[in-house]
């Protein structure tokens, strides 16, 4: 795993050498690749590539990048891992298409495959996580590509070189392309509104108006002559080589025909293969372990394939409501891993917050980023690669919204609108903390796995779920921190969310399945994978996610829904596989997530910080956020009338990012 950057266009560097610009871009990515770097440029063609290397496979100079093909036609800068590269290498050998191998890196295998088969034919055959930039010297053409699910990031932007010449900049992180003096830092206010809704900036947008993210599963080809168009026109040139929607639809149309037991066996075999593939490394490897179903299962399968204790890592909090460390420790003891646990104080966690804008590069507000940063730092002290259990919820129906949302829609959808409005007003009539106190005795009587945390907050969220009139509106409400951003960002309305695109709805799928697909297209790549990638790469740690093996994804979507969700529980096949490795008392417990006591922090140690960032005169001077709704939200939280920490955190992270980046809001929308 590494970092890449580059440019396409004449006069990118003015009269100076390309190495100056490329060095500056690469310097911004040094944390992603601490083991070395390289540059390549063709001044006549107006193209340059920069690379920072985190050496995982083939630690020798044979893995150095940017890497030219033996024929000299292609030059590749690559970030990621190709897990099936040995199979591709063997196929090249059998076909007589292999070069004289210089080493055993997956980069060299990938470059040889592209030279032999072409990039368009190679991309669908890759099993891995990646972002790449490829220059074809004979065609004078740049290609950018990203893996199926978006594990690895890739930004691109239109800028101006010397004399106003059009220029394309691209890189693994925003900071790498922001170093160019012609980079346009104007905020995209419509994307900012979307960010406040979701707590992340969804692809293809970025926080800057002339910058985009390459969509997962897509590739983009450009020549210098194509740069005269707008960034939106460039974005429309993206071509998908794989689509999660197509894979999901195919699974629904060709369902798994076996029994429940056979489905469990198939899932275990598929995940075992994925875990085995992702162990390939020439450096120490371990895994994150929270004690939840997904991470415990990945660790169990890893340990079963190893003759030595696997290194596992977890963080816990002093507050027992947010401390999963005892569960992780119990799982580690049972499986026999070499477990390292870090119990952090509130002060330790709070010390991370000022660093978040630099780590994430653009506004990002999933508060579980805090423990993610801490566990990544812990793991990096011992290993260079860590496997994660992420994506099990999206594939196998683990999020509560799949069950709760569907039940609500089936039961309340037919009710008259005024009745639902009245119920919503009743639930919102009492502050969330009051509901919490009133219902605490009843909650304690429920079985452990059905007890609810923050039940007052959930009742207030339920009130918001009573008003949608379509299933699409219901899903959007379920995944929104700010259900309505009208008037929140001055001078802009948000871009239409993906959920509003009818082309992304399955033909014949259930509401649960549609929500799982939409999460795979939005929440997974733009929240979960961003959170993991930036936190880990900030310390030069490679993360791998076996659940995102494309064969396992296809299998999961072929399973009829009753194999995944039934009886008020999700992830049934994962639970069943894990039961072959752990006792039930270590499996059946309430889902905790990766949370922090954010609500209490914002009323306590973070209160002064928050008040400074959201001070009305500051907001009025900036001209970005409307002071009135922001202050109303802040005061409601401080006075205990509702728990508004999920709405406040995106506001605070936006303001902290503005301070860190020295960004002055400019009244400009994308394309203006």
Content of β-strand: 5-15%
Q: How does the helix and strand content classify structurally?
A: alpha+beta
Q: Please state the average pLDDT score.
A: 92
Number of helices: 29
Q: Rg, please?
A: 25 Å
How many β strands by DSSP?
17
Give the overall form. globular
Q: In what order do the strands lie side by side in the largest sheet?
A: 2-3-1-9-8-10
Distance between the termini: 36 Å
The biggest beta sheet is recorded as: 6 strands, antiparallel
Give start-end ranges of low-pLDDT stretches.
Answer: 667-672
Oligomer: single chain
Q: Can you give the helix content as a percent range?
A: 40-55%
Summarize the helices and strands and which ones pair or pack:
Elements: E1 2-8, H1 18-27, E2 37-42, E3 47-53, E4 67-68, E5 74-82, H2 85-94, H3 106-117, H4 119-122, E6 128-136, E7 141-146, E8 155-160, E9 166-171, H5 174-178, H6 189-198, E10 211-213, E11 218-222, H7 231-235, E12 239-240, H8 244-253, H9 260-277, E13 285-288, H10 293-304, E14 311-317, H11 325-335, E15 338-344, H12 346-352, H13 356-360, H14 369-380, E16 385-387, H15 392-396, H16 400-412, H17 417-428, H18 432-445, H19 455-465, H20 471-478, H21 511-521, H22 523-537, E17 542-544, H23 550-558, H24 572-578, H25 598-603, H26 607-613, H27 616-622, H28 627-638, H29 645-661
Parallel strand pairs: 13-14, 13-16, 14-15, 16-17
Antiparallel strand pairs: 1-3, 1-9, 2-3, 4-5, 5-6, 6-7, 7-11, 8-9, 8-10, 11-12
Helix pairs in contact: 2-3, 8-23, 9-23, 9-24, 10-11, 10-24, 14-22, 16-21, 17-19, 18-19, 21-22, 27-28, 28-29
């Amino acid at each position: 795993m590494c970092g890449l950057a580059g440019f396409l266009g004449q006069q990118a560097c003015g009269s100076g050498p390309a190495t100056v610009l490329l060095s500056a871009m690469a310097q911004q990515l040094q944390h992603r690749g601490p083991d070395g770097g390289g540059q390549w440029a063709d001044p006549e063609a107006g193209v340059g590539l920069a690379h920072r290397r985190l050496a995982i496979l083939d630690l020798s100079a044979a893995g150095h990048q940017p890497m030219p093909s033996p024929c000299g036609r292609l030059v590749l800068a690559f970030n990621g891992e190709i897990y099936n590269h040995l199979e591709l290498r063997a196929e090249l050998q059998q076909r007589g298409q292999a070069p004289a191998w210089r080493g055993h890196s997956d980069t060299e295998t990938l470059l040889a495959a592209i030279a032999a088969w072409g990039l368009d034919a190679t991309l669908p055959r890759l099993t891995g996580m990646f972002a790449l930039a490829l220059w074809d010297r004979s065609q004078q053409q740049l290609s950018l590509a990203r893996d199926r699910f978006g594990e690895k990031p890739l930004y691109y932007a239109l800028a101006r070189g010397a004399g106003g010449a059009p220029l394309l900049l691209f890189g693994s992180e925003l900071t790498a392309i922001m170093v160019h003096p012609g980079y346009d830092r104007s905020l995209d206010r419509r994307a900012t509104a979307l960010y406040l809704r979701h707590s992340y900036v969804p692809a293809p947008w970025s926080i800057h108006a002339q910058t985009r993210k390459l969509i997962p599963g897509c590739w983009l080809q450009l020549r210098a002559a194509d740069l005269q168009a707008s960034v939106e026109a460039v974005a429309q040139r993206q071509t998908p080589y794989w689509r999660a929607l197509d894979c999901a639809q195919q699974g629904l149309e060709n369902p798994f025909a076996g029994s429940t037991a056979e489905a469990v066996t198939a899932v275990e075999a598929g995940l075992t293969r994925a875990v085995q593939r992702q162990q390939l490394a020439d450096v120490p490897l371990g895994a994150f372990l929270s004690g939840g179903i997904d991470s415990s299962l990945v660790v169990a399968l890893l340990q079963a394939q190893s003759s030595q204790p696997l290194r596992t890592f977890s963080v816990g909090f002093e507050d027992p409501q947010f401390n999963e460390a005892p569960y992780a420790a119990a799982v580690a003891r049972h499986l026999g891993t070499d477990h390292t646990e870090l119990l952090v104080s509130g002060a330790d966690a709070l010390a991370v917050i000022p660093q978040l804008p630099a780590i994430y590069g653009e506004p990002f507000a999933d508060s579980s980023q805090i423990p993610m940063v801490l566990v990544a730092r812990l793991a990096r002290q011992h290993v260079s690669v860590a496997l994660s259990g992420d994506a099990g919820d999206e594939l196998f129906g683990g999020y509560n919204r799949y069950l709760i949302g569907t039940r609500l829609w089936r039961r309340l959808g037919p009710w008259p609108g005024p009745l639902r409005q009245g119920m919503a007003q009743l639930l919102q009539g009492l502050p969330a903390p009051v509901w919490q106190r009133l219902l605490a005795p009843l909650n304690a009587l429920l079985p452990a796995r059905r007890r609810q945390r923050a039940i007052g907050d959930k009742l207030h969220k339920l009130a918001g779920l009573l008003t949608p009139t379509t299933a699409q509106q219901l899903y959007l409400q379920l995944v929104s921190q700010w259900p309505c951003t009208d008037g929140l960002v001055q001078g802009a309305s948000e871009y239409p969310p993906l959920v509003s695109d009818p082309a992304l709805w399955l033909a014949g799928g259930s509401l649960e399945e549609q929500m799982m697909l939409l999460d795979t297209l939005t929440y997974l790549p733009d929240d979960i994978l961003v959170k993991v990638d930036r936190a880990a790469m900030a310390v030069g740690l490679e993360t791998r996610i076996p659940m995102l093996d494309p064969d396992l994804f296809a299998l999961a979507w072929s399973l009829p829904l009753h194999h995944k969700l039934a009886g008020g529980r999700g992830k049934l096949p994962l639970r069943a596989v894990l039961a072959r490795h752990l006792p039930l008392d270590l499996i059946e417990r309430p889902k905790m997530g990766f949370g922090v006591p954010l609500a209490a922090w914002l009323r306590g140690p973070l209160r002064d910080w928050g008040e400074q960032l959201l001070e009305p005169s500051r907001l009025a001077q900036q001209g970005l956020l409307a002071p009135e709704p922001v202050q109303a939200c802040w005061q409601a939280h401080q006075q205990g009338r509702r728990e508004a920490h999920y709405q406040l955190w995106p506001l605070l992270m936006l303001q902290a990012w503005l301070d860190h980046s020295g960004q002055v809001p400019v009244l400009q929308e994308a394309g203006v």
